[in-house]
Each structure stands twice: as C-alpha cells, then as structure tokens.
Amino acid sequence: MRKRVRIIIWTILLVAVAVLVAVRWQAWFGMPEEPEWTGDTLVYTMPTLTDVEAQEALAHPEDSVLTLLVLGDIHNGLTQANYDTLAARVPEVDVVTQCGDWLERGQGYYYQALLHEWMPSALSGVPVVACPGNHEYNKGISKELSPVWDEAFPRPDNGPQEVPGAHFYVDLPGLRLIAIDTNPLVHLVHLTRTLTWLRETMNGAKGRFVVVMMHHPVLPACKGRFNPLVYASFRRALGDADLVISGHDHSYMRRSSFVVVNAAGRPKEPGTGLQADVRDTVPVYGVLTVKRSNSVSGLTSNSPQDVLQFTVHRLDDGEVIDSLYVCHD
Fold it and tell me: Which run of H or E residues covers position 192?
C-alpha cells in the first residue's frame, strides 16, 4: 500500500513539474516577459515589396543604379538617429534588406520599439525586404514565427509550397533577391522542397544577378557557430549565387561570395582558425549596387557590363572595410 502511495505521489510531482516547465519554458529559456509598452499604439506595417506595382516603382533607365542598403543583426539596437545617418550616407537607397534578428524577440513590444525608431526616420518610406532570424521566432514547446512578422513584413507568395517559414523572392532591376528562412528547416521533406525551389528560382533569374539572404550562415564567422545542416544543404546549392548574405554570428566575415554581416548585435570574437578573405568585429552596413558600366573602381572592359558592387562600411564612421565586384557580360 505504501509503495502505491509513493508511486502516486511521485507521478503527481512529475506531472506538476512537466506542466510548470511547459508553462514557464519561454521565461526560463531566453524568452523574457514582454515589457509594458508605454508609447502610442502603432500599426505593424513596414513599407515592403509585395507585388508587381511596388517592383515597377523601382524601374530605372539602363544607365542608372539600383542601390540596396544591407543590414545584419540589429536586435532593436539602432535608434532613429542611426537610421537618419544611414539615409544620409546612402542618399539614393532604393531598398533596405535585412537578414534576420532585427528584433530582440518576436513579441509585440519589440515590433513597437522597431517602428517607434524607424517610422520617424529618413528611411521610413524606403521599401524593406527582410527574412526572419531565430529571435523573430517565439520559443516554447514548439518554435513558431511570430504572427506579427507577417503583419509587419508582408511578402510575395512565391515560396516553396507546404514549407513553413518566410521563403520568397523579389525581382528588381538587374537583380533577383531570394530570401531563405533557415529556422524551420529541420524536416527532410521541407529541406528537400526548399532546395528544389531554390534551384528553380536561381535558374529562372533570366540574366539578373542572384543575391541570396538567409539568417544562419553557410560558412561561420565565429568559433562554435558552425551549422552542419545549413552547410551541408546550401554550400553547393548556393555556389552559383553572385552573393550570399547572412547574419547570426555578430561579426563581419567574407569568404569568396559568402558574407556574414552584423549591424548592432553585440560583437562576438571571430575564430582565428576559420578561413576568411576579410574579417572584422565592428558593426557594419553594406551598400549593394547594380549598374551597367565599362569601368568600375579599376575594373575595365571594352564593352559595357552589368556590374554588382558590394561595399562594407563601419557603422560608426562609414569607412569602407571591404568590397566585392561581380560582372555579367
């Protein structure tokens, strides 16, 4: 009899612990309670490229330039003054791109904080193309993309069918920009469908430059950040892309056409044993331009070429620390 009582008591205790862990999982494992927002209620909508009309608004004459401002991890770490400074440094920016962890957490408060700094800034009217990072996902028993994300960042419905996450592409003058959500790709069927869609989307670029952005990098910038699933799945598939931009590692690194950027996340020391063409720990922003030219910063040709130019600047003073050029005949 006593043995049965003990079994019942221990069973009740174990169930209680399991329920407590399920309820408090978010608070205990990196998901703090949402702070109370004391400012005005804001509508969760960023100016985004979602349809043909928005893309056609960016149409350029053949001899002009398409300019993208590239941002890495931010974690709600940029102020209105920071955005105003970026707008002044890149006055002709057509599109802002961001490769995940713009928010500190995937909760309403952090969207309010983002919009509070962004909307009054000089970049507020510039279209945004963003892919989610791991901090945009609500953590708990299951990991789910915050429902506010789709409300704030509507996207074209051209991703792989029946695959969770924010996968899509937008066509700009001379450039196809592809976004891959690396967070939910843990099931083989989802990964296979995404890779098939990625190959078809890259092959259908019709002569445009192909730029891919994803949160988790194929090639890590820091020691201990190697993601074997992303590496094994995307290293070969993205070998034909003109530029691959990632975040997550809170450092700057470029190896060939694979780039890792960090805008305002707390810098992490890069691993000295990792191969890289350029490496730095300072917060940066990128400026990506596409234009037709026969002379770009020392590159010469007898006939005009389509040129993709990617320059990386320190966030604090705008100094150029790296540059990359890709030419199409």
Answer: helix 188-203
